[in-house]
Amino acid sequence: MAIYLKEGIIFVISAVLAIYWLIKLVMMLWRMRIDPVLSTDPVEIESSPLISIVLAVRDEEKDIGDCIISLQGQDYTNREIVIVDDRSRDGTVRIIERFQKDDPCIRLV
Q1: DSSP 4-22
Q2: What is the Cα–Cα distance from 74 to 61, expressed in whole angstroms?
Q3: CA distance 62 to 60
Q4: Contact of 57 with 64, CB cutoff 8 Å
Q5: pLDDT in tens, 42-83
Q6: Which is nearest to 50 in space by CA: 86, 84, 76?
Q7: Nearest to residue 51, comparing CAs of 108, 105, 109, 89?
Q8: Which residues contact 9 (CB under 8 A, 6 or more apart)?
Q9: Which residues have CB under 8 Å from 104's CB, separation 6+?
Q10: Residues 6+ apart with CB under 8 A from 22
C-alpha cells in the first residue's frame, strides 16, 4: 500500500508540473503573438534621437581601442561617444585622442 501511495504522490506532482509548464508555454506563445516585430530597415537620421554612449575608463590601454572600434561599427549613426577618463596613468588618453582625430563623435572628458 505504501508503494501505491508514493507512486500516487509522484504522479500528482508530475501532473502539476506538466500543467504548470504547459500554461507557461501558452503564455509565452500568446506574448509572442502580441509583441511587435522590430524592423531591420535603416532608420533615418533626422527622425532618430541622439544617443550618448558614456564610457568611464581608467588604465584601459589594452582594451580601449577594441572598445571604440566596436562602438564605431554600430549601425546607428546618430550617436556620440563620451569617454570619461579617471586619471589614467598608462597610454589610455593617447589612444583615445588618436581615435578622436578621425571621429568627431568621440569626446574625451
Answers
A1: HHHHHHHHHHHHHHHHHHH
A2: 22
A3: 6
A4: yes
A5: 766 667 788 999 999 999 999 999 999 999 998 887 899 999
A6: 76
A7: 105
A8: none
A9: none
A10: none
Q: Which residue has the cell 511587435?
A: 36
Cut 0.70: pTM above it: no
Determine if residue 87 is left, alpha or beta; phi over 0 gives left, psi from -120 to 50 gives alpha, anything else beta: left
Contact status, residue 96 vs residue 66, Cβ threshold 8 Å: no
Residue among 90, 89, 31, 88 at smallest CA distance from 108: 88
Cα–Cα dist 39/64, whole Å: 31
Count of beta carbons in the 10 Å neighbourhood of residue 92: 23
pLDDT in tens, 24-52: 999 988 887 777 777 777 766 667 788 99
State the DSSP code for 90: S
